[in-house]
């Protein structure tokens, strides 16, 4: 199954809900990243050469789209968050930011005055303070890696609540970092609910809530500032900014929501963020369709029929069935639509990305690859030829550099068979 729906109504800053996230918050988050960068560079050798900046390349996708839709070949780009340092996925943006912000708040709450000088986080006193506290999270895997790696590096005890279908290699890697992994029968929703409840019982436990964390959201939102510079460097942002379609693999919606909010702040009604979800784990798309919006469907009808799946999917990072309330309140009306596909299409995209661009990602990260072709076709079929002709497309590759070679090869072999 492949389904696409679009809302092309103009939505800029005026439509952004500031009840939970304010414009000044994302500007403050940008400043916080800059203040933290020297400390992050000191802790993690892999970002020494960037001065502690955590960002990823922006790749042209000419080879891929010469094969998929040659008229798009010079207008599609791949945002390589699968190569983000430290945690190897888009979750590095939110998870690492949240961990360091919690550490700062904890220090100041215990009488240490940091005043924007975060070198104190490298001190023995910081280690002594943090080792008495737990950081906890419910996760399907990548957020757990982000929080587990950065939290342990600061000295926290980290506890991760995971459903039993989470990938074994992620559990093994977490345990190698000293993280306690607790597994639950059932799906992600059960793991996060129990994890949240257990954390509330412990006064020295901090639960980083994937469904409702402002800090995660703000960490993701700052990706838009880096992307703006990259687009400027490619001379893609002239006096008249072109329409920008962004394809964001989506679980509860935290990372897509944060990035969409940041991009709307910068580009206003010129950007069209789309969530990408597997058909067995539809969360945000369902909420968008139920929102009584003016939608264009790939089926050229006004109906969109699907049943709520069991949540099992090869795209394990997307295996959730309920959206984040924070994201839907702050960003729900800013999403321009959704793209829904089945596991075979996700795996085919993963293999195609390697065959034509020599990039290895985990399946969920490749799920948006065929979005630009489908959107381009839908725009032209519904009288939006001018947008189709001018638009650039950004496919967000959200994770995979930590995926073991054998696991990647098994996915690839499934396609080739």
TrEMBL record:
Cross-referenced SUPFAM superfamilies: Tryptophan synthase beta subunit-like PLP-dependent enzymes
Modified positions (N6-(pyridoxal phosphate)lysine) are 91
- Which Enzyme Commission numbers does its entry carry? 4.3.1.18
- Keyword check for S-adenosyl-L-methionine, yes or no: no
Instruction: Give an example GO molecular function.
Output: hydro-lyase activity
- Record key words, sorted: Lyase, Pyridoxal phosphate
The catalytic activity, as recorded, is:
D-serine = pyruvate + NH4(+)
Give the UniProt family note: Belongs to the serine/threonine dehydratase family. DsdA subfamily.
What is the protein name for this chain?
Answer: Probable D-serine dehydratase
Q: What is the lineage of its organism?
A: Bacteria, Bacillati, Bacillota, Clostridia, Halanaerobiales
Name of encoding gene: dsdA
């Amino acid at each position: 199954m492949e389904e696409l729906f679009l809302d092309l109504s103009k939505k800029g800053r005026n439509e952004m809900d500031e009840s939970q996230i304010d414009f000044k918050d994302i500007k403050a988050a940008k400043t916080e990243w800059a203040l933290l960068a020297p400390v992050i560079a000191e802790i993690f050798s892999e970002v020494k050469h960037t001065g502690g900046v955590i960002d990823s390349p922006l790749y042209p996708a000419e080879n891929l789209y010469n094969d998929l839709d040659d008229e798009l070949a010079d207008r599609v780009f791949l945002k390589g968050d699968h190569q983000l340092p430290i945690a190897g996925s888009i979750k590095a943006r939110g998870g690492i930011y949240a961990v360091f912000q919690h550490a700062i708040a904890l220090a100041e709450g215990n009488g240490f005055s940091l005043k924007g000088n975060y070198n104190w986080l490298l001190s023995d006193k910081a280690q002594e303070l943090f080792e008495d506290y737990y950081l906890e999270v419910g996760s399907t895997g990548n957020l757990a890696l982000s929080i587990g790696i950065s939290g342990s590096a600061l000295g926290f005890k980290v506890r991760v609540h995971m459903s039993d279908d989470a990938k074994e290699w992620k559990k093994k890697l977490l345990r190698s970092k000293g993280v306690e992994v607790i597994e639950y029968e059932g799906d992600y929703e059960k793991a996060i609910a129990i994890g949240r409840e257990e954390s509330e019982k412990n006064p020295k436990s901090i639960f980083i809530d994937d469904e409702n964390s402002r800090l995660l959201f703000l960490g993701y939102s700052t990706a838009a500032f880096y992307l703006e510079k990259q687009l400027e460097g490619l001379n893609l942002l002239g006096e008249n900014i072109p329409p920008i379609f962004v394809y964001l693999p989506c679980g509860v919606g935290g990372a897509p929501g944060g990035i969409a909010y940041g991009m709307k702040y910068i580009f206003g009604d010129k950007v069209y963020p789309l969530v990408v979800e597997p058909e067995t784990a539809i969360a945000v798309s369902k909420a968008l369709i139920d929102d009584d919006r003016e939608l264009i469907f790939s089926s050229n009808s006004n109906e969109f029929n699907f049943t709520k799946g069991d949540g099992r999917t090869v795209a394990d990072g997307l295996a959730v069935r309920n959206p984040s309330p924070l994201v839907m309140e702050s960003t729900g009306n800013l999403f321009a639509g959704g793209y829904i596909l089945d596991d075979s299409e996700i795996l085919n995209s993963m293999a195609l990305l390697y065959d034509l661009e020599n990039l290895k990602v985990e399946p969920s990260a490749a799920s948006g690859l065929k979005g630009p072709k489908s959107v381009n076709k839908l725009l032209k079929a519904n009288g939006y030829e001018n947008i189709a002709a001018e638009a650039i497309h950004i496919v967000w590759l959200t994770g995979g550099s930590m995926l073991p070679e054998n696991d990647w090869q098994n996915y690839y072999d499934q396609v080739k068979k």
